[in-house]
Amino acid sequence: MTPYVDPDYWALEKAHIFKKVWLHVGRVEEIARVGDDVVREIPAADASVIVARNRQKGLSAFHTVSSHRWNKVGDQP
What share of the chain is helix, strand, coil (3-state, %, to 5)? Predict the structure, then answer.
């Protein structure tokens, strides 16, 4: 039962599994037009990301913290 409730085990899972794999943050339909974006908190990776439709109609994703002062950026839901 320990793996299901132990905070130390959860920290190990986040570090060795969830921070190293692709994680679902939304559907492309949510950002269908150029300029659309979504902001998502990802507790399993201790992260927050913004995903946006760029001018080339592709997707771009970024952490929602500035590298300068570690403040969150982007519209928060």
Answer: 30, 25, 45
CB-CB contact of 10 with 26 (8 Å): no
* Cβ–Cβ < 8 Å for 48, 72: yes
- Global pTM reads 0.70
pLDDT band with cut points at 50, 70 and 90 for residue 47: confident
Give dist(CA 37, CA 53) in Å, integer: 6
For residues 40 and 49, the answer to whether their CB atoms sit within 8 Å is yes
Give alpha helix (H) positions in 1-77. Answer: 2-5, 7-16
Determine which helix (DSSP H) or strand (DSSP E) holds 41, and give its type and residue range: strand 37-42
Selection from 60, 50, 51, 57 nearest residue 33 by Cα:
57
